[in-house]
Amino acid sequence: MRLCFVLLPDPRPLAATSFEKALKEFPELGPVTWLSSTREGTSAFSVGGINVLCALMPMAVPEGEADGATEHSLSGLDGSWTLPDHRAHLVVVQQETPERPENRSAGGSRGTRRETGPQRSGDLAEPERPGKKGTQLEELTTFTRVVAGVVRATQAVGVYWGEGGATHHPEFVVNIAHSELPLPIWIGVSVAKAGKASELLSIGMKQLGLPELLLTAPAVDGGVFEFFYDLLAYVVRRGKRLPEGDSVGRTEKERLKVHYVASPVDADDWVWSVSLPPAKKTKKKPVKKVAKQKVAKKKKRK
Asked: Is residue 298 part of a domain?
């Protein structure tokens, strides 16, 4: 079971007509089948191969938990966005579905690894196999698009993805939900100073049974965040952790070693760590002083 919280300006249940209209933005999900629900303010339905329950709670998420989590979303870094007041929320839950028949077989042909994400040397990883991991990612992606449809239908003010420790801007959720692998919705990021450098720590990789990533960088900019999520996406597609001492990089030539260290927020938890080198200093060429030319004074003609 997985869940998230769609934050509302006031109590409003999910309306069937509005939701079906919103899902037209995600035609790959197909039609909605509405299921019976006995509780007022609760909607149950099946779409895209998963069963979902939406329960209305006429109150804000308790203890301000959702309000402080905007700093862990790419949509709210450095206070670029703060969550408006919310007086209600929908708990959106993916319910357990029966195992697909095609995944019960222990056999199956081997797939091929996608050549995407950061470059990595000495890659001896096994190709992806169809089965549980692929189904897990597909269902999580489907659930994310369903959540985006709920956001559209209810005019939500935010989405709190609890397992990722992040509260996202509603438009951020809808836009990222269209991507093949909407990791920035599932996985939050915590940024902290570490001496003269900065550390980026992922939040939520345990949803996928993988360790968190700690990326150390001399400075943080858009390129660093992009590389951070590229590394996460690469490991997610691979389906298992990278070995100690392996190498990753932003280019084919770059070799950044992977090490496992204690998490900076939990000494009992181990995270995989990658450090970016400091920027190379460029030597300034000395400026040649141009000697002032003596200009001969012209004699005035008589």
From this structure: no
The single-letter code of the amino acid at 250 is R
Residue 295 located in a structural domain:
no
What is the pLDDT at residue 301? 47
What pLDDT score does 171 carry? 98
**Contacts (Cβ under 8 Å, ≥6 apart) of 203:** 72, 164, 165, 166, 187, 188, 189, 190, 212
Expressed as residue numbers, the domain containing 222 is 2-275
In a domain, 281, yes or no: no
Low-confidence ranges of the chain (pLDDT < 50): 100-117, 119-131, 295-296, 301-302
Domain count, the chain: 1
SS3 string of the chain?
CEEEEEEECCCCCCCHHHHHHHHHHCHHHCCCEEECCCCCCEEEEEECCEEEEEEEECCCCHHHCCHHHHHHCCCCHHHCCCCCCCCEEEEEEEECCCCCHHHCCCCCCCCCCCCCCCEEECCCCCCCCCCHHHHHHHHHHHHHHHHHHHHHHHCCCEEEEHHHCEEECHHHHHHHHCCCCCHHHHCEEEEEEECCEEEEEEECHHHHCCCCEEEEECCCCHHHHHHHHHHHHHHHHHCCCCCCCCEEECCCCCCEECEEEECCCCCCCEEEEEECCCCCCCCCCCCCCCCCCCCCCCCCCC
Per the domain annotation, does 189 fall within a domain?
A: yes
Amino acid 118: pLDDT: 54
pLDDT the model gives residue 56: 97
Say what the pLDDT of residue 285 is.
62
Report the pLDDT value the prediction gives residue 37, as an integer from 0 to 100.
73
